[in-house]
Design goal:
alpha/beta; Cobalt-precorrin-4 Transmethylase, domain 1; five-stranded parallel sheet; globular
């Protein structure tokens, strides 16, 4: 039996697009799973359209699951450095129907191909992608690796 690949996570804070995609390519990522509620960025190359084009150019499939993004109140808490408050808000959000459907879709994706969850924050401990990765790993038995 082949061991399933780890669920990878990465934040693009402080990175440029080429560096970011080099990191993903080196890690063997086949799917970039964008879990931002709002897939736009003031950072060049990281808004949805440019990110998807950059992924495609590297042979990486891009998928955006908006339902797994942090609600505005959670994003505000994260920006204020209140990671605990963000986690509480996000946990409540994950109980919703749309988020549950998003988790089911993400589960299927991470089981099928080496996948990296994407958000902004460089430090996974301060980001909701850690919470999503932990939920998925609990369901799939995969390990987690933060890039």
């Amino acid at each position: 039996m082949t061991k399933a690949p780890a669920i990878l996570t990465a934040g693009y804070e402080g990175r440029v697009q080429d560096e970011f995609f080099d990191l993903l390519s080196a890690a063997g990522v086949a799917v970039l799973l964008d879990i931002r509620a709002v897939p736009i960025s003031r950072k060049p190359g990281f808004s949805k359209t440019m990110l998807a084009a950059g992924a495609q150019a590297r042979g990486i499939r891009y998928v955006h699951l908006q339902a797994l993004g942090t609600p505005k109140a959670g994003r505000d808490a994260a920006r204020a450095g209140k990671a605990g408050e963000m986690a509480v808000i996000f946990a409540a959000h994950l109980r919703g129907e749309a988020a549950q459907a998003g988790l089911a879709a993400a589960d299927a994706i991470v089981r099928a191909a080496p996948t990296c969850l994407l958000c902004f924050e460089r430090d996974h401990a301060q980001c909701h992608r850690r919470i999503v990765a932990e939920r998925l790993a609990a369901a799939t038995g995969q390990s987690i690796s933060h890039l």
